[in-house]
Amino acid sequence: MPSTHPASGAARDHFQVLIIGGGTAGITVAARLRRAGLCDIAVLEPADVHWYQPLWTLVGGGRAPLGVTHRPEASVMPRRVHWIREAATAVDPEVRTVTTAHRTIGYDHLVMAPGLQLDWDAIPGLDAAIGHGAVSSNYAFEYAPYTWELIRGLRSGTAVFTQPSGPVKCGGAPQKIAYLAADHWRRQGVLDRIRVVLVLPADSMFGVPVWRRALERVAERYGIEVRLNSEMTSVDGAARRLTVADRSTGAEDGLAFDLLHAVPPQRAPGWVERGPLADPASPYGYVEVDKHTLQHPRHRNVFALGDVANLPTSKTGAAVRKQAPVLVANLLAEINGEHREQRRYDGYTSCPLVTARGKVLLAEFDYDQRPAPSIPLLDTTKERRDMWLLKRYGLPALYWRGMLKGLV
Predict the structure, then answer these.
(1) Would you call 39 a catalytic residue per the annotation?
(2) Is 141 exposed, middle or buried (0-12, 13-18, 19+ CB in 10 A)?
(3) Which of 166, 196, 272, 345 makes an SS bond possible with 268, Cβ 3.0 to 4.6 Å?
(4) 98, 150, 170, 356: the active-site residue
(5) Which residue, among 139, 26, 144, has the nearest Cα to 87 in the 3D structure?
(6) Other Cβ atoms within 10 Å of 77 Cβ, number
(7) Closest by alpha carbon to 350, among 358, 360, 362, 334?
(8) Quick one: angle between helices 173-187 and 209-222, nearest 10?
């Protein structure tokens, strides 16, 4: 371990702030706390690799190499933050401890940022089918390159793109890969020989009307068959057949495919879901927090952000970028015993909706589903080349050089 990261905690069993998770949310919070002058911080994270997941869609669409989406975890860990290379297995907020397979760690204040887990087993047949044959998913780094291999090799037949019910990381990603694939097939002159089916669980293509209408036009342009209020309930990879259920009627029908891009259901890690910090109102086990302050309502020294927090907004890195400064300000106020008005998060999130090679609709909105543009002079309700450049090059640079360093 680099000397800038104190030894993995063998001599330490208590920290002022313990952050569970060294992904986007955890590292961003740790960096901001260090910049605020806090010194006694630990990050609990077992992984040696840090991934920039938003680019996996472009990897699957043949527009980015997998190699640009990851760096060593050590390279993003803030200086003088204790990195404990273990995974949490339980938390006890009453005695203020977190348990791993090897130790119990005490804390004064806790930040929950372990992300979510992909539940491949939740759809019968998906775990066995994923990653070979005609089935892939951009939601795991090991499969994203295979998605492009399947898209590039398809010249005719049926291509199905699915999204499960419930919250998923970047709710627009299941659609984006369908548009990238259709654009590729159009450029290859084979789109008219491919039936493209998009299976979505909601009753519309997008929650915000202005971008919903734009996506409807995109789907119509490619001739995509959109099935709303529907989801895949089982898949037979060997037979290349799946079952689609209509959630409004309960009816099911079989669908043969030559390519399937499947998004797995997602939920909180099991130890979170079974633990005392989970929101009883969340069927997916996400952490209970005040949606504005990001503070746990029953444990004032516990905060949560990112994918694991039960917030009524899309789970995106852009949301974390707005959540982190709010959480850090409120956490520091709690540490210092300051009784002042807390900072508030308004639900801002962003989804760069890739609609073609070189074209993006930048959807930015808040809890009330109102557009919340960060560049007011640009009309991001229309497909734009500059928003593609932002997605492909600008946002990754902002992530590695700014966000993970606590600068933006």
Answers:
(1) no
(2) middle
(3) 272
(4) 170
(5) 26
(6) 24
(7) 362
(8) 30
Instruction: For residue 171, give the amino acid letter.
Output: G
Query: Is residue 41 predicted with pLDDT exceeding 90?
Result: yes
Number of H helices, E strands in the chain: 11, 21
Here the tokens at position 218 are 């995109």
- Interval 323-367: pLDDT, tens: 999 999 999 999 999 887 899 999 999 999 999 999 999 999 999
Residue 315 is classified by DSSP as B
Q: Write down the residue that tokens 């960060």 correspond to.
A: 374
Interval 31-59 mean pLDDT = 98
Ordered alpha helix ranges (H), 274-350: 317-336
Q: Which letter, b or e, does each residue of 267-294 get, where b requires 16 or more Cβ atoms within 10 Å of its Cβ?
A: bbbebbbebebbbeebebbbbbbbebbb
Please report where in the chains the tokens 């939601």 appear, as a residue.
139
Q: What are the tokens at 227? A: 């099935």
Residue appearing with tokens 């590695």: 400
Residues 252, 258: contact at Cβ < 8 Å? no
Q: Which residue type, as a one-letter code, is found at position 292?
A: H
The pTM of the whole model exceeds 0.85: yes
Contact by Cβ (8 Å): 138, 60? yes
State the catalytic residue, choosing from 178, 351, 356, 361.
Answer: 351
* pLDDT, mean over the chain: 95
